[in-house]
Design brief:
- The chain is α/β, with parallel strands linked by helices and 298 residues long.
- It contains ten helices and eleven strands.
- Strands 3, 4, 5, 6, 7, 8, 9, 10 and 11 form a nine-stranded mixed beta sheet that branches.
- InterPro entries: LysR-type_TF_proteobact-type (IPR058163), LysR_HTH_N (IPR000847), LysR_subst-bd (IPR005119), WH-like_DNA-bd_sf (IPR036388), WH_DNA-bd_sf (IPR036390).
- Keywords: DNA-binding, Transcription, Transcription regulation.
C-alpha cells in the first residue's frame, strides 16, 4: 500500500522521539493534533503502530516494519531533492546537531548564533547529551564526537584538537596543600566523570593520570566545572571552558596536559546534500576559530 509522505514524516517523528510531545516540538505541531493524525494512519493501515504507556510511545511489530519502509522513503526523498536545492549560499530550514555537553555548552551557542545571524531563515537545534548519537535513527542531522567512529555508513571529518588541564578554584587552592606533583593529588578531593557512565574512552581522563577514586562526580562536564567553581575540588577541565569560569585556574600544567579532538559525523546518504554540506563547513570553521580564541584566554 502506498503511504502519504506527510503521514510517514509524522510517523517517523513519533517513532524517533517516542512521544507525542517530543515529536510535536520537532514538527511544530500540537501533540493532540499529532495524536489524531497517528490514529488516522493506524486506522488507514488497519494496524496498531505504537504501544502507548506513561513512558511514551513504543513501536509494535507492525510499527517496526513500517519504520524500515519509512526510513527508506526518507532516504529516497533526500536523494531526490539533493540536486534541487537552492544554489544561493543562504541556508534555510531546520538542522539539528547532537554534541557532548562540553561542546554544546561552551562552543556551539556562539558558533551557531553567528551562523544563524548570517542565515535568518535557518533554524538550528542543539541537542546536548552525554552519549554517542545514533545518526542511522536520524536523532540528528549531524553529530560532534570526541572519537572517530569506524563502523556504519558515515562521513567523518576531524574538526580541531582541543586541550584539557587540571584546574581548581582560587578559594580551594588557598585552603589546601600546594600541588607540585601528581603524587600530591592523593591528598586532594577530585571532581570528574561517574566512572560507569563514561560513554567514550577518550573521556576517561582520570585513569590516564592514575586517579582511581572520584569523590565528586557527574556525567556532565558543565556540572563538573560548576563543582570546581564552588571550591569543591580539583578536576580536568577544557581550556576553552575556563573563560566562562572566573576564579578557576589551571594547575600543574607541565605535569598534566591532555589533547583530544572533535569530529563532525554525518550520514553517508547526506554526502550530496548541499545545504548540510554548507552548514557543516560553516560549523567546522566556526568551531576551529572559537576553540583557538578561547584557549588563548585560558
Amino acid at each position: 500500500m502506498e503511504h502519504n509522505w506527510d503521514d510517514l514524516r509524522l510517523f517517523l517523528a513519533v517513532a524517533r522521539e517516542q512521544s507525542l510531545s517530543g515529536a510535536g516540538r520537532v514538527l511544530r505541531l500540537d501533540p493532540a493534533t499529532l495524536g489524531r493524525r497517528v490514529g488516522r494512519l493506524e486506522k488507514t493501515l488497519g494496524a496498531v503502530l505504537f504501544v502507548k504507556s506513561p513512558q511514551g510511545y513504543a513501536l509494535t511489530d507492525a510499527g517496526a516494519q513500517l519504520l524500515e519502509r519509512a526510513e527508506a522513503a526518507e532516504q529516497a526523498m533526500r536523494r531526490a531533492t539533493a540536486g534541487m536545492e537552492e544554489q544561493s549560499d543562504q541556508l534555510r530550514g531546520q538542522i539539528r546537531i547532537g554534541a557532548p555537553d562540553g561542546c554544546a555548552n561552551y562552543l556551539l551557542p556562539q558558533v551557531c548564533a553567528r551562523i544563524v545571524a548570517k542565515n535568518p531563515a535557518l533554524d538550528v537545534q542543539i541537542v546536548a547529551l552525554p552519549r554517542v548519537f545514533n545518526l542511522s535513527r536520524r536523532e540528528a542531522d549531524m553529530a560532534i564526537g570526541v572519537s572517530a567512529p569506524t563502523a556504519g555508513r558515515l562521513i567523518v571529518q576531524k574538526i580541531t584538537d582541543y586541550r584539557l588541564h587540571l584546574a581548581a578554584a582560587e578559594s580551594y587552592l588557598a585552603a589546601h596543600d600546594p600541588l607540585n606533583s601528581l603524587e600530591d593529588l592523593r591528598g586532594h578531593r577530585v571532581v570528574g566523570y561517574i566512572p560507569d557512565m563514561i560513554f567514550d574512552r577518550e573521556l576517561d581522563y582520570l585513569t590516564d593520570i592514575g586517579i582511581d577514586r572520584v569523590p565528586l562526580a557527574s556525567n556532565s562536564v558543565s556540572v563538573q566545572l560548576q563543582m570546581i567553581r564552588q571550591g569543591a575540588g580539583i578536576g580536568v577541565t577544557h581550556d576553552f571552558a575556563l573563560p566562562q569560569a572566573p576564579g578557576v585556574r589551571r594547575v600543574m600544567t607541565q605535569a598534566v596536559s591532555l589533547r583530544r579532538a572533535f569530529y563532525l559525523i554525518r550520514h553517508a546518504d547526506d554526502r550530496r546534500n548541499r545545504r548540510l554540506r554548507l552548514f557543516a563547513d560553516a560549523l567546522s570553521s566556526g568551531l576551529r576559530a572559537e576553540v583557538a580564541t578561547l584557549e588563548a584566554k585560558a
